[in-house]
Design a protein that fits this description.
binds adenosine-5'-diphosphate; single chain; about 15% strand; ATP-binding; eight-stranded mixed sheet; amino-acid biosynthesis; alpha/beta; disordered N terminus; Asp/Glu/Uridylate_kinase; transferase; binds the ligand N[C@@H](CCC(=O)OP(=O)(O)O)C(=O)O; about 450 residues; kinase
Length: about 450
């Protein structure tokens, strides 16, 4: 049984994401001023307790809809971008006006995925955020919708907030939305949906999040789970709770510090739970929440910190893959062993997509036909990790399967013998379900961090 005694001396970095449906009323399209001002008061309170706060605010398009008197979200990209341009200025001025009443300084940070495609630029964005936090400023982050093309979009602000949380090494990510927590099904349409209180590990999480969210929101619950997966892998405890009662964050942070330490105490690395373990943890958690009078929320436990290092986090989540390099089992073993090797052409059996030099690709394990020595495309491939390639797709197609000393005669130049250098390879904390099953069958391990 947890006794949630606040320690009081812990200072955290807390990223708070507010969805469009919490900023703009989905029926009247007017700003939800009460919601926003309650959030401002809470964030300032957390700041004054010494925590470092980042606000990721959606709502530019929704505010733009209201200003321009549009009935529905438009379909055409240029119109959406124009609306976001109209709305973002008003949005930031509403936030800044409210924070200024409490003498809290803010900064506007607009990011696109393209901005962080280069590691130096990723570090720049990271350094700017950290500098602002050191100055006690609250950065207000949104996607730079006006210049994001579809190809370079984060896609939704849930993902953006998780990347932001990873960037500033946050302790908590709060996804504030228009429902109290994650349910087993959409509570708007299924009255029998029941709350999920705590998730120790995202694998085997059995909930239905397929149905879309509010009329002004983008991703529904689905993108919040993707964000929770991404953030928890970067060591960030992620919470879904209701934006109408943001003051609950104060209690949840205090409770989580004590409760999560106890939940983690028995396990060094938090591993996937069975359905029974999951149900039991949920029942125990409800008891603890009631005993400590902690408001309803869903908490996803962050994995131990620093397990995915900064550059690996950038490779895995900052970059958008433009294709795949398919490798054989020997290559998989070489690049994932304790003393990791770089990825050599001899281990490559296939290429997918049209990527260029230094672009990001998915690394997949494929099946090599023993007779032909070629990639057997009738068998499944398994996602292993990501990497930045030293050669473009068409070059890799020419050199795959070759020994390093043969490259020159085919390419007429050789920059490096590696298709991907080992420091440009990254593996997630856990393999997905299919790869796990294959590795168990082959008695192989996934690389530790
Ligand atoms: N399993 C689920 N649990 C909770 N909400 C769900 C679930 N599946 C779908 N939803 C929907 O997701 C919505 C929240 O997503 P969205 O409208 O995009 O919010 P935001 O604008 O805050 O990002 C909820 O209003 C709810 O209708
Ligand atoms: N950048 C967009 C937000 C898109 C988005 O993810 O919205 P939501 O699902 O409400 O968090 C905007 O400001 O309109």
């Amino acid at each position: 049984m947890v006794s949630a005694t606040p320690k009081g001396d812990d200072k955290f970095t807390i990223v708070v994401k507010l969805g469009s449906s919490s900023i703009v009323d989905e029926n009247t399209r007017e700003p939800r001023i009460a919601n926003m001002s309650l959030l401002v008061q809470t964030l300032v309170k957390l700041r004054r307790e010494g925590h470092r706060i980042v606000l990721v605010s959606s709502g530019a398009t929704a505010v733009g809809l209201n200003i321009m008197g549009f009935e529905k979200k438009p379909k055409r990209l240029a119109v959406k971008q124009a609306l976001a341009a109209v709305g973002q200025g008003k949005l930031i001025s509403m936030w800044d006006g409210m924070f200024r009443l409490l003498n809290q300084k803010t900064a506007q940070v607009l990011l696109t995925r393209n901005d962080i495609n280069d590691f130096a630029q990723f570090r720049n964005a990271e350094n700017t955020l950290l500098e602002l936090l050191d100055m006690d400023v609250i950065p207000i982050v949104n996607e730079n919708d006006t210049i994001s093309t579809q190809e370079f979009k984060f896609g939704d602000n849930d993902t953006l907030s998780a990347i932001t949380a990873g960037m500033c090494n946050a302790d908590f990510l709060f996804l504030l939305t228009d429902v109290d927590c994650l349910y087993t099904d959409n509570p708007r349409t299924n009255p029998d949906a029941t709350p999920v209180f705590v998730v120790k590990h995202m694998d085997n999480l059995d909930v239905n999040t397929k149905s879309s969210g509010s009329a002004v929101g983008t991703g529904g619950m689905e993108t919040k789970l993707i964000a929770a997966d991404l953030a928890t892998n970067a060591g960030v405890t992620t919470v879904i709770c209701n934006s109408e009662t943001p003051q609950n964050m104060l209690d949840i942070v205090r409770y989580s510090c004590v409760a999560d330490a106890e939940l983690r105490a028995s396990e060094e690395q938090i591993v996937a739970q069975s359905k029974e373990e999951f149900d039991r943890a949920n029942v125990d958690e409800l008891e603890n929440l009631q005993k400590n009078e902690i408001p309803l929320h869903t908490r996803f436990l962050g994995q131990p910190k620093n397990t995915v290092k900064n550059k690996e986090f950038w490779l895995l989540h900052g970059l958008k893959p433009n294709g795949s390099v398919i490798i054989d089992l020997g290559c998989y073993q070489a690049i994932t062993r304790k003393k990791r090797a770089g990825l050599l052409p001899v281990g490559v059996i296939g290429v997918e997509g049209h990527f260029r030099h230094l672009e990001c690709v998915d690394i997949k394990l494929g099946h090599k036909d023993n007779k032909t020595g070629k990639w057997d495309q009738s068998k499944p491939t398994y996602h292993v990790g990501r990497g930045r390639c030293n050669y473009q797709a068409s070059e890799i197609e020419l050199i795959m399967g070759m020994q390093s000393d043969e490259l020159d005669s085919v390419l007429q130049y050789v920059d490096t013998e590696y298709v991907v250098h080992r420091e440009n390879l990254a593996f997630p904390l856990h393999p997905d379900q299919e790869l796990t099953e294959l590795l168990t069958e082959l008695k192989l391990e996934f690389p530790g961090h």
